[in-house]
C-alpha cells in the first residue's frame, strides 16, 4: 500500500472530501479502512482523533478511531451497511462539532506559548495536551516564589489580547534542513514520514501537525485555569470559551 496523503495538513477546515479505498482489513472484531488520502485527523501531537463516516452509495463505515502508523492512516470502526472493496471511490465526512472544538483547543495551546513569549517569560515549551477534558501545556522552567494568581491573571490577559488581535493562522511546509535553519529542533515526537509543517501566528511559529483555527478570533476567549509545578515542569492549564 501507498502512504496515506494527509489532506488535513494542507486544509485544516475541510470536512468533506473524496478518496479511494486501498484495503479493508478485519481485525479483532473491528474493521480498518486504508485510503489513498484522508481528511481524518489521527491522534497525535496532543490532539484527539476525528470521528465521522466514510460512505459510498451502497455502504457506510462509521469511523470510531483514527491512528497513524508508518505512513498509513488507520480508519478504525464498523460498517453499518454494505462494505467497500479496494479501488472504490468513497466520500469522507468528518464530524464537524468534535473537529471544531479540537481546532480551537489546539490553537489555544499555541496562544499560551505566544503569550509567554510576549511577557518575556523564559519557559521552554514541552508537551501539550489539547483534549477537551482538561487541556494544558507544559514548560521547563521555574515558578519560583512569584505570586501565582497574579501571574495566572497576567498570562490570561495576554492570551485574550492576542485573540482580540484576530491574527490569521498561516502554515508553511519545510524540510528538515529548513526547519533547523529557522532555529527549530526536529520534534522528537515526529512520526517518521510525516510532513514537517510550521504553524505561524504573525512571525511566531511552532512546528506542528495539528489542526488549527483559521483566525484566532474563533477562540472567542480563553481562561488560564491553573499554574502548577508538575514533575519538574510547569503545567499551565487553560481552556477556550465553550
Ligand atoms: Zn501544536
Notable characteristics:
6-stranded antiparallel barrel; 4-stranded antiparallel sheet; single chain; 242 residues; 40% strand; Threonyl-tRNA Synthetase, Chain A, domain 2; elongated; Elongation Factor Tu (Ef-tu), domain 3; binds zinc ion; alpha+beta
Short account of what is shown:
The chain is α+β, with helices and mostly antiparallel strands and 242 residues long. It has four helices and 15 strands.
Mean pLDDT: 94
Helicity level: 10-25%
Number of helices: 4
How would you characterize the largest beta sheet? 6 strands, antiparallel, barrel
- What general outline do the C-alpha atoms trace? elongated
Query: Strand content of the residues, in percent?
Result: 35-45%
CATH topology of the largest domain: Threonyl-tRNA Synthetase, Chain A, domain 2
Task: Please give the CATH architecture of the largest domain.
Answer: 2-Layer Sandwich
Strand order of the largest sheet: 2-3-7-6-5-8
Distance between the termini: 40 Å
Looking at how many chains there are and whether they match, the oligomeric state comes to single chain
Ligand kinds: zinc ion
CATH superfamily of the largest domain: Threonyl-trna Synthetase, Chain A, domain 2
Spatial extent as radius of gyration: 19 Å
Which blocks of ≥5 consecutive residues have pLDDT under 50?
none
Would you give an account of this structure?
- Helix content is 21%, strand content 40%.
- With 242 residues, it is of the alpha+beta class.
- The strands form four sheets. A six-stranded antiparallel beta barrel has the order 2-3-7-6-5-8.
- Helix 2 (96-118) packs across helix 3 (148-164).
- Bound molecules: zinc ion.
Amino acid at each position: 500500500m501507498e502512504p496515506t496523503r494527509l489532506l488535513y495538513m494542507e486544509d485544516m477546515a475541510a470536512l468533506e472530501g473524496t478518496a479511494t479505498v486501498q484495503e479493508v482489513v478485519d481485525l479483532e472484531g473491528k474493521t480498518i479502512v486504508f485510503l489513498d488520502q484522508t481528511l481524518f485527523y489521527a491522534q497525535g501531537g496532543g490532539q484527539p482523533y476525528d470521528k465521522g463516516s466514510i460512505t459510498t452509495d451502497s455502504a457506510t463505515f462509521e469511523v470510531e478511531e483514527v491512528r497513524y502508523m508508518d505512513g498509513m492512516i488507520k480508519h478504525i470502526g464498523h460498517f453499518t451497511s454494505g462494505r467497500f472493496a479496494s479501488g472504490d471511490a468513497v466520500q469522507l465526512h468528518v464530524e464537524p462539532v468534535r473537529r471544531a472544538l479540537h481546532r480551537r483547543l489546539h490553537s489555544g495551546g499555541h496562544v499560551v506559548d505566544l503569550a509567554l513569549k510576549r511577557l518575556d517569560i523564559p519557559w521552554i515549551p514541552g508537551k501539550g495536551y489539547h483534549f477537551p477534558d482538561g487541556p494544558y501545556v507544559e514548560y521547563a522552567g521555574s515558578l519560583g516564589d512569584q505570586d501565582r494568581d497574579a501571574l495566572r491573571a497576567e498570562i490570561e490577559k495576554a492570551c485574550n489580547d492576542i485573540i482580540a488581535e484576530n491574527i490569521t493562522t498561516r502554515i508553511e511546509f519545510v524540510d528538515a534542513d529548513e526547519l533547523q535553519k529557522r532555529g527549530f529542533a526536529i520534534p522528537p515526537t515526529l512520526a517518521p514520514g510525516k510532513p514537517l509543517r510550521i504553524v505561524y501566528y504573525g512571525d511566531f511559529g511552532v512546528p506542528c501537525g495539528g489542526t488549527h483555527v483559521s483566525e484566532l478570533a474563533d477562540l472567542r476567549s480563553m481562561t488560564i485555569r491553573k499554574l502548577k509545578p508538575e514533575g519538574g515542569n510547569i503545567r499551565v492549564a487553560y481552556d477556550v470559551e465553550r
